[in-house]
Amino acid sequence: MFSQLIYKLMYSIVVLLMVIITVSSIIYLAPVDPTRLSFGQMADAGTIEKKKERLGLDKPLPVQLMYYINDISPISIYRTSELSELPVTKSALSLSSTHSLVLKMPYLRESFQSGRKVSELIGEALPKTLILAFASLLFALLIGIPLGIICALNRDKMADRAIIAFSTLGVSLPSYIPAIMFAVFFGYVWSSLTGLDVQGSIIELNDLGNEEIRIRNLILPVLALGIRPVAMITQLSRSAFLDVMNQEYIKTAKAKGVRLVSLLYRHALPNASITIISASSGWLATLIAGSYFVESIFNFKGIGDLTISSLTSFDIPVILGTLITVCIFFIIINLVVDMLYTKVDPRIKVN
Amino acid sequence: MNKQAITFKSMPFNMKVAVGFISLVLLFAIAGRFIANDVPIYYSHKDWKGFPAMNKTSFLAFKQKNEDVEPDFQILPLIPYSATSIDYKHSLSKPGQDVGSRHLLGTDTFNRDVLAGIIYGSRTALLIGILSNILAVIFGLFLGSLSGYYSSVGVVTGRQNFIFLLMIEILLGYGLLYNPYVSVYIYNTQVRLLLFFILTILSVYMLLRPQRKNFRLDIDLLITKSVEIFQSVPGLLLLLGISAVTGTMDVVKLTLLVSLLRWPGITRLVRGEVIKVRQSQFIESAKSLGVTDWRVIAKHILPNITRQIIVAFAFGVASSILLEASLSFLGLGLPPDQVTWGMLLSQSRTNPAAWWLAIFPGLMISLLILACYTVGNYLNNRTGETSSKEEII
Question: B1-37+77-153+249-393, which class in CATH?
Fold first, then answer.
């Protein structure tokens, strides 16, 4: 199992490298000059040339890519004279008179626009997105599984039909339509009743200029982001419970006189949870990556908002940095799910 | 597999509704300019006679010359606004605010009629949804059948062919996409990309030409790994990244971008289906008769997997429409002078009081997607063996 994990890790590093190469070659292909964007139209040619030279944008694309990969990899080679300019924790080992081997934290470079370090920007945005994603997944599980159980217990009755109809609608709705509806109705029209705002991040500046945590700003984004997962998990858990409830050991447990609640949660849920886990892990990945709309509607300053603002200002390091972060999360979640499968269902062997 | 023809009568109720809604949108897309337009459909006068909705510029020139001319006969469209016509008096007016004005669904921030916008936007939605999937299916069929057909053996080819192909690819890739001197002559990035794709497909064909064969190329491994790489990136992120850098969008660019996201799924599906069919007896007998590989794929395998591809197409149209709407919603889609549903919807972000901008375009997007899903599900259930929905999407 351990060797499998190592193999998968190596493979995912290769995938990550390919992703970086593909995306950055597409991005560098664009006929846009980021230095021009950062200085404006009135900048003179000398300044722009200097900035270009400093950012390495005057070199051909393959060279730029090599420099970038050298920067983000933990083990890298630098000129000894450049070492003092690297703003990350590092330890160097001199290879020759001019070059040295460096062991360092990945350096994601600095934003063209604000001049801040990309890792700093991502470090501010990522926790908010993670809180949002986990909260909405939790919401989806807490609502979706009971709804699925209700459906499975009342199969083909009125309640089942109604819930299935609503969940079909929920699956086909893109996340920004409920988000906008919620923002308009709960945040604006009925704002005096609900006491919620249209926009707001989880950490906001108050009137004194201090940061404060506002949990209530999380309610509407979680609801909006959770609708699709709720619908999906309802349908999945319905079919999973229908499968399980027809099995012999459930009949035995019923005949033994087990109460309904413990029958569902002790006996049926573990076997039904395999499909639910696989679905919800997929959803976690898409929630982390795909919360752009919800974040930009509610002005929730997470990864999605950062990505979109960097895209509109053509901030290459930030675009690549957020992309790499999201890809790493994709890979980590897939690895964890693979491991989790074998824990939940010992019949599945890691292959 | 039941070969029974699909008739409208034999469909279940929800399928009838879905087909009805799709035909309504199709009608909007085809005949939108006759339903909503700021010029009459038919205009008859002794100086100018014809259909102003078809050639607007000549009619407007005529109108400019002689301003207050009474026509002998004219047919006015149902809605007297086109999507881009600006009503200076009504900014963000509610649906049916004044009895005199005929903004049935209100106006948007640019003083344009929402109903006309919805009618004109259906053209963009359907065009991108269908065209991008046609492209993706062509690409996916090519790659998927190659990878599925040669999955166990690999392509046997001449070594010199393979080296030739590699060199051509590197030269083409560098020359067409990154070389500044070439880009001076072929300025249009789309043309360069198109040339690159055509020459790539040609060079893959070159790889298979009969020659001294001494080299086994595992084409399946190459294709499946590239599909895997494409699928390991969150698709929307990739689309956002590319669309932000390609400059001003048009329908062709957007179609290419959306199909870029669709081909990996279809390639995977086709590969699986081809592998399933390849093991049957009739393929073996065709091969033993000496039928060439291309002919086996085209004449014997592809007719057997058309149903699955049609199902994937129906689901794919839904997700392409969703992608297009998402991009316009974020302001990275088509420019604002081309009205799309996503763009109308995105205006409600800045004007929370304008609920009609949120509800009507949102309803259209979700209903069209729902209809496509319904059609896909229906066709999928008819094929007998149901493949899981997740896999197709």
Answer: mainly alpha
